Automatic annotation (TrEMBL):
It comes from Flavobacterium cutihirudinis. GO terms for cellular component: cytoplasm. GO terms for biological process: pantothenate biosynthetic process. This is 2-dehydropantoate 2-reductase. Residues 5-157 form the Ketopantoate reductase N-terminal domain. GO terms for molecular function: 2-dehydropantoate 2-reductase activity. PANTHER family: 2-DEHYDROPANTOATE 2-REDUCTASE (PTHR21708:SF26), PROBABLE 2-DEHYDROPANTOATE 2-REDUCTASE (PTHR21708). Catalyzes the NADPH-dependent reduction of ketopantoate into pantoic acid. The keyword Oxidoreductase applies. Belongs to the ketopantoate reductase family. Pathway: Cofactor biosynthesis; (R)-pantothenate biosynthesis; (R)-pantoate from 3-methyl-2-oxobutanoate: step 2/2.
Length: 306
């Protein structure tokens, strides 16, 4: 029996990491990769494969199947989810018939509440925690563009069987994905959230890319103040984060391509639905829950949520 892995959401994250999996396990006797897609993305991949463009290369990969029809997809052993956070409930509910009791779900979203939301939908399943560091985006339907060299995937669970976690870890490593199976996954996910929340909030509010945020003194002050506010929230929640988490996060941003920006900022510029509730308003809500003031987050949320 093959291990069947579904990739839900073929944007910058799902498309890139799902593409590496499809490339590694094309015609494999042990692992089968299924892309779950619809519309123009499904059509483009079915006809021409998924193209991944990096700074050094272009690669076209083909999954075992690309579909959004549960009867065609069948039962899955693992489901890697990488849609937008506002699509969590709708997208997963549509795949209810593909998820058996033993299916392990790995969320790779920008927010930190995905595991709880998915667990509410599927209380009998093991829902892991996970996050990625990567700058990648949809260039066109069926084509993913990745910027820079930085790419890491972290995941873990306090309840899932270790054997299943290690199986997934080895599958990812064999696909040349820099995968890290971590014990303190909640803190790891929050470290990523601090990075992406402040970045998405600042770039969207200021309408600037990473280079502009870093080089404009007033913009950088806004970004750093957001980092301090979300750090205060994380500390109030009792998370054990590095004492220099703000400095570490700034270094991460300085290592990012200057011309890049956040996916939320790109969605705002394109007039699309955005993840502002999960990335900006969530911090305000958590601050109120734990008695932490987040005046800058509140100010920006009021502007971005219209």
């Amino acid at each position: 029996m093959k291990t069947r892995i579904g990739i839900l959401g073929l944007g910058g994250v799902g498309g890139y990491f799902g593409g590496l999996l499809a490339k590694a396990y094309h015609n494999s006797d042990t692992v089968e990769i299924v892309f779950i897609a619809r519309g123009e993305t499904k059509k483009a991949i079915a006809e021409n494969g998924l193209k991944i463009i990096t700074d050094e290369s272009e690669t076209i990969v083909h999954p075992a199947l690309v579909s959004n029809v549960p009867e065609e997809i069948g039962k899955l052993d693992y489901l890697i989810c990488a849609t937008k956070t506002y699509d969590i409930e709708e997208s997963l509910t549509s795949l209810e018939n593909c998820i058996k009791k033993s299916t392990i779900i790995l969320p790779l979203y920008n927010g930190v509440d995905a595991q709880e939301r998915i667990q509410n939908l599927f209380p009998e399943n093991e829902v892991l925690q996970g996050c990625v560091y990567i700058i990648s985006m949809i260039f066109s339907p069926g084509t993913i563009r990745k910027l820079g060299f930085y790419e890491k995937l972290f995941f873990g669970s306090k309840t899932a069987p270790l054997a299943k976690l290690e199986e997934l870890h080895l599958i990812l490593l064999a696909a040349k994905i820099e995968s890290h199976l971590t014990k303190n996954v909640n803190e790891t996910v929050w470290e990523k959230f601090i990075f992406i929340s402040a970045l998405a909030t600042a770039t969207s509010y200021l309408n600037q890319n990473i280079g502009e945020v870093l080089t404009n003194l007033e913009s950088k002050v806004v970004y750093i103040e957001l980092l301090h506010e979300i750090e205060d929230v994380a500390n109030a929640k009792g998370l054990k984060l590095p004492e220099d988490i703000v400095a570490q996060t700034i270094v991460k941003l300085e290592k990012s391509p200057r011309e890049a920006t956040s996916s939320m900022h790109r969605d705002f510029m394109a007039g699309k639905n955005t993840e502002v509730i999960s990335l900006t308003q969530f911090v305000v809500n958590e601050g109120k829950k734990y008695g932490v003031k987040t005046p800058l987050y509140e100010k920006i949320a009021a502007v971005l949520i219209k």
